[in-house]
Amino acid sequence: MNNSSRTDLSTLGEFGLINRIKSNTSLRNKESxxxxxxxxxxxxxxxxxxxxxxxDLLIEGIHxxxxxxxxxxxGYKAVIxxxxxxxxxxxxxxxxxxxxxxxxxxxxxxIDELYKGIEAACKKYSVDLVGGDTTSSKTGLLISxxxxxxxxxxxxxxxxxAAENNIICVTGDLGAAYMGLQVLEREKQVFLANPDMQxxxxxxxxxxxxQLKPEARTDIIHEFLSLSLQPTSMMDISDGLxxxxxxxxxxxxxxxxxxxxxxxxxxxxxxTAREFQLDATTCVMNGGEDYELVFTLPLSDYDxxxxxxxxxxxxxxxxxxxxxxxxxxxxxxxxxxxxxWKHF
Length: 344
Ligand code: ADP
Ligand code: MG
Fold this sequence. Notes:
Layout: H1 9-23, E1 32-34, E2 41-44, E3 49-59, H2 71-87, E4 92-102, H3 108-124, E5 128-136, E6 142-152, E7 167-171, H4 176-193, H5 205-212, H6 218-226, E8 233-237, H7 241-252, E9 255-259, H8 267-275, H9 280-286, E10 292-297, H10 302-305, E11 311-318, E12 324-327, E13 333-335
Parallel strand pairs: 4-5, 9-12
Antiparallel strand pairs: 1-2, 2-3, 3-6, 4-6, 7-10, 7-11, 8-10, 9-11, 12-13
The chain binds adenosine-5'-diphosphate and magnesium ion (MG).
């Protein structure tokens, strides 16, 4: 290839690159209902159901740091991030495969630990490990998990489908996993400077747990069923609320307004953000790894969820031309922007 045709990956970014890959491929089988572009692919299963398929790749040094991430938690989290993508389609996960690339730095016991975590997640979410692949690596540990799930045809929920005036809801609280990571990184630096120092994690248990051992909100998928709720659009919050809201708006052809004062933030997240001289709202909007769900509902469903302990209304969908905005506590409107891709 000559130099003049070389385009830096950073000029496209993650989403640009995915769009480019998507536009250079096409679907050939009628069973492939939805391909690239949502949290999971949607495949024909039978008259009443679709199969959902999602995959993620975790790389040592980029997605996890074994200095402070125990292998048992890593195994658990590697499964969770995929189950979360199945939940984001309003589906229930059923099977996973796990592929590993391992360097000779790892012992049999270490891999046992990793699989203890994988098995714990499988047990908790009633999922079966049905296969995978094992190979060697020269650079560290790589874990790829693929999850398969099922959703009934009427329940399938995409990123697209939200309409003007739909309320925007999130589950749980946000920003905690990001603050947990900041604490772990700080303690790592302290430890590297003085290996005799014990990490100072007391009082940070919740946010550290949110970073190291997240959960997938399949419980909310069951709640939707029992409350007779059908979200108009949904995705999981893996990259920070800002990026996810932009995805929902882009796919649904709407704008949105999010109210800063409504964002669900745990007091420990808030306090830790202050300690690090970070703005808690910025951590929520741009942090990531919450693995909560963001979804939209018709306004008429408000009464069904207004007192739900795990669901918070944070804003509503607006006409596209009004843009995607954050209303600050002080009453100022800001554009919500994507933070771009950190990987390249
Ligand atoms: P999520 O954060 O929900 O896992 P991603 O942002 O990783 O979603 O991916 C968005 C969409 O792009 C998904 O449909 C995913 O399958 C697809 N995708 C990501 N990377 C690639 C790739 N290298 N080739 C084909 N499709 C991809
Ligand atoms: Mg997702």
